[in-house]
Amino acid sequence: MNGIMRAGALMFLSLTVASCSNESAGNAGMGPPGGSMGPVEVGVVTLQSQPVPRSAELPGRVVASATAEVRPQVDGLVRRIAFREGHDVKAGDVLYELDDTKFRAAYAAAEASLKKAEAATAGARATFERNEKLAATNAVSAQTLDDARSTLLQAQADEESAKASLQTARINLDNTMIRAPIGGGVGISNVSVGALVNENQTDALVTIRQMDPVYVDLVDSSVNLLRVRDEIAAGRLGRESGSPAPISLTLENGREYERTGTLSLADMVVSQTTGTFMVRASFENPDRVLIPGMFVRAKVDFGSIPDAFLVPQRAVSRNETGDATIYLASAANKAEIRKISTRGALGNDWIVTDGVKNGDRLVVDGFQNISDGTEIEAVEVSVDDDGVVPQSLNQAASDTQEMPR
């Protein structure tokens, strides 16, 4: 029995050693995937300079080019509303008619007071002229002449006061007809017929807004303002300093507004809390598509940068000092790290103005596995509009090999 057990143990040990030997031999024959000792396969695109538009997308809000809140200048009851809500009115059109009974009476009383003052002035003038003639022959005393002169001056003053009262009464009577101070779209009336309104009340009767043209208030940082000014002044954007920049709008539903606008003014003050400033653009709005209060996105066209390069953002990284860097495939098929200068972005690309030249092969895929000086195998790939390489490197290499020469 002991002999049989000893023989079984020896056989088990032999099988175990053989199995381990076979496994070790198999592992020794397997290499790392992709062949770590060979060149690293990367995807590249060839760079070519081109004119690149320089623009900025800014958030904005539509505001009316002019707004007037209509308030009564006299007290009274609303007798008639003379406009249609939501329609256009012209400057001077009657909006409301107030009850004018007491104002007509006040005007008549002021008119009568003026006539009375005019009569008193005429009498005082006749008395003064008569006494003046008599004083020349010493028929009356100097005191009498002075009294006549004083009476005339007082009568003239009373007449001027009566004229002012009549003018005030006329103004109050005219103010019972409340007119539009500006032309534009009239909103909803806040009062109805029969309502009592008060002179210079806080609440407006109705609001009028001029909606053609309209303004769009945009907000941008002061840093961008200085950068764009410097580029225009240096002539790098192909636009003369002071020339208006065209602006296009994207509405809230994503639709492009069919008309372009121009910058009309920029606020002269930068916000101390946000470091931003306001820019106002003007747009024609004959169809009333742009409504005050609406949010939009504006694209401001500053010009174009000649001989710039569009480098996919996926290919750009930052070093420890914050400089933008890329990998290029050298003529010797080695990875070469390069510093670049960027000037904003366009879609999913950085706008590069320094650090690359025409014909450079930019590594856009596989750069995670390389460093400066790594031996590489460059395969031409493409980058779609979303900044994605749609095909794998192996598929791109196969397509390259199958292309007829």
Could you name the CATH topology of the largest domain?
Answer: conserved putative lor/sdh protein from methanococcus maripaludis s2 fold
Task: Tell me the distance between the termini.
Answer: 78 Å
Number of strands: 20
Largest sheet: 6 strands, mixed
Walkthrough of the structure:
It is a single chain. With 405 residues, the chain is an alpha+beta fold. Strands 1, 14, 15, 16, 19 and 20 form a six-stranded mixed β-sheet that branches. It has a six-stranded antiparallel beta barrel with strand order 2-9-12-11-10-13. The protein is built from five helices and 20 strands. The chain has three domains: 40-50 and 307-402, conserved putative lor/sdh protein from methanococcus maripaludis s2 fold, CATH 2.40.420.20; 55-64 and 211-304, Elongation Factor Tu (Ef-tu), domain 3 (Beta Barrel), CATH 2.40.30.170; 100-175, Helix hairpin bin (Helix Hairpins, Orthogonal Bundle). α2 (101-136) runs antiparallel to α3 (142-174). It is elongated. It is 29% helix and 34% strand. Mean pLDDT is 82; it is low at 1-36 and 400-405.
Question: What does the secondary structure layout of this molecule look like, with pairings?
Answer:
Elements: H1 2-29, E1 40-46, E2 50-70, E3 76-81, E4 88-89, E5 94-98, H2 101-136, H3 142-174, E6 177-179, E7 184-186, E8 196-197, E9 206-221, H4 222-233, E10 246-250, E11 261-266, E12 276-283, E13 295-312, E14 317-318, E15 324-329, E16 335-339, E17 341-346, E18 349-354, E19 361-365, E20 376-380, H5 393-402
Parallel strand pairs: 1-20
Antiparallel strand pairs: 1-19, 2-9, 2-13, 3-5, 3-8, 4-7, 5-6, 7-9, 9-12, 10-11, 10-13, 11-12, 13-18, 14-15, 15-16, 15-19, 17-18
Keywords: Signal
Domain Multidrug resistance protein MdtA-like alpha-helical hairpin: 107-176
Organism: Aquamicrobium lusatiense
